[in-house]
Fold this sequence. Notes:
alpha+beta, Pdz3 Domain, 2-enoyl-CoA Hydratase, Chain A, domain 1, 3 domains, 6-stranded antiparallel β-sheet, 6-stranded mixed β-sheet, 22 helices, about 45% helix, about 15% strand, disordered N terminus, EC 3.4.21.102, hydrolase, signal, Tail-specific protease, periplasmic
Amino acid sequence: MPSIKTLSRFLLISLLFSSVAWATIIPPLQYTEKQSETLKEVISRLHSHHYRDQPVDDALSQKFLAKYLETLDPARMFFYAKDVEGFEKNATKFDDYFRKGDLGPGFDIYHTYRQRLVSRLEQIIDLLEDDSVTFRFDQNDSIVIDREEMPWPNTRAEADDLWFKRIKLSLLNLKLAGKTVAEARETVARRYKNQLTRIKQQDGTDVFETMVNALTMLYDPHTNYWSERTSKNFDINMSLSLEGIGAVLQSEDEFTKVVRLVPGGPADKQGQLKAADRVVGVGQGSDGELVDIVGWRLDEVVNMIRSPKNTTVRLEVLPSDAPANGETQIISIRRGKVKLEDQAAKKAVMELGDGDTTYKIGVIHLPAFYIDFQAQNNRDPNYKSSKRDVARLLDELSKENVDGVILDLRNNGGGSLYEATMLTDLFIDQGPVVQIRTPDNRINRHHSSNSKARYRGPLIVLVNRLSASASEIFAGAIQDYQRGLIVGSQSFGKGTVQSVTDLLEGKLKITESKFYRVSGDSTQHRGVIPDISLPVMIDTDEVGESAYENALPWDQIHEVPHARYYNFQAFLPELIADHDKRVKTDPDFNFILDQIAMMAKNKDKKSVSLNEKSRIAEKETLEREAMDIDNKRRIGKHLQPYKTLEEYRSSEVEEQDDEQVAQNQYEIDVDGDTLLIETGNIMVDMIRILSTDAVKQASNF
């Protein structure tokens, strides 16, 4: 039974909310006959063309309802338990409705949501603008920051308490960022006014798109419906690469999340925006007002970010390693176009020794698999492509007498499948590279290496969690042929192929086939597992195919005959043992491990305090932990440790400025990239082993 104190609190909050005017009654939105026919067309295409053979039945109907409600109310703060109970009466009927093109029940759910949303927003705005309502930040209350698994509120009082805490959280975050309470109230009220205006401007197309995507996402995360408006606003990958910042975005709950950065794009060069960061505000120019975009449709966010080149956009970003309540940062990015030369492969040479001998290691960084198809079709003899550029760099490195080559595919999100095949051609003799299977189990093995290897020396391919698609095809082929070692972290796991088809209204992007390695292993979901693992500062629970709901599973098909150039398994244990021994005492390597451990600990936080002093103390504690692990690194490198937090904070600002300059230069850092240096050390160990007579005689090169 609730305590007297709890009941009194609910009563107070309910009185505060109920003192505002009744919400505007909004008329329900209507669907069209054309949308009904389009829905039936979507159902038909999913059945006949999607890789996953999934029946449209009662089970799918129940999943649809759960996904639809999650899409509309991910934090479970608008609907009441009684609303959801009413919706569930139709839980097993949506499959029947969809076959008939009946959108009525889905539109009814949306109307309830929209009415609840309008009502709540109007109440919040009135509350924030009522000077008689005060917000105290000296109480020992807190708020649950992840309500995905929490129950919907049963009563108005429960919902009012949740919302009062959410408002307090927003105000406190702004207060901790330097605003006065009055300024914070004005900012939060303006955010909700913007959201209210947008929700009142919605039409039936918005509802239809939301509904259909709740259905298509049950098949896999890359199958999407685009209304005509959405398909005009951004390209297949939702990439802002034409005149924008060069970032691939997606909607996740009420946030706009960065999936990856376009290699060589403005955001990539600027260096601060990262994969899995959440954009919560957008401002134009160096001093334009930051508009809160939490809860906005993705196409609306894209329109705000995309503008003519050489203009500035400011993003308010919640970093990927921060909780949903965390402090944001402002990132200014100058818009521009991504050019092929910005994505071009680059090389460097690093010199490393094993105590007796100094080795020259060539490094090639390939940000994307690119090709200028137009120039190629025009028979331009100098057309740019990743394969041609890497071939030229390999020739240059050979002339510099390098002892081995590291091909760095970290953060390479893919690109041309043709180029991935052609790149493999530089390192292996003739043979298959990738298999592609369609829903009817037909297997295409036409993508093959067709000539003798151009480079036959020691090879390591460096990958991380953001190495995806074509990168995984190349790395998988190199691993299957035992042509080189794969070093780094588990790759993304994007092993599916999509096509876009026109519908009666809008377009459908649908997953139609799947990639498989020559070993028969899929690259889907699991990605490529490195032979030697390195730590990664990316949260694999947030980034990667396995982070998506309903991602297609990993599986296998038959292996195809292929050569094996080395027997790496025979001496891999020795390489791993040498690696483990070396990094155990490496201050920079252990600094990365300490940072990852700190991120993991903070990620487990389930609630956040609404007490200002507690939050300030928590922030200082985190800063001290960060300073302690940095001091551990500095002492290990015989540098002077930081004595105070103030000294550490000022150094952090200086280091961020230095990192940004380095990112803008977009060069390979052979002196400061800890993981690249360790990969070079692994290469030295491998060269030493490969040079022995026994390994030479066993190899096919």
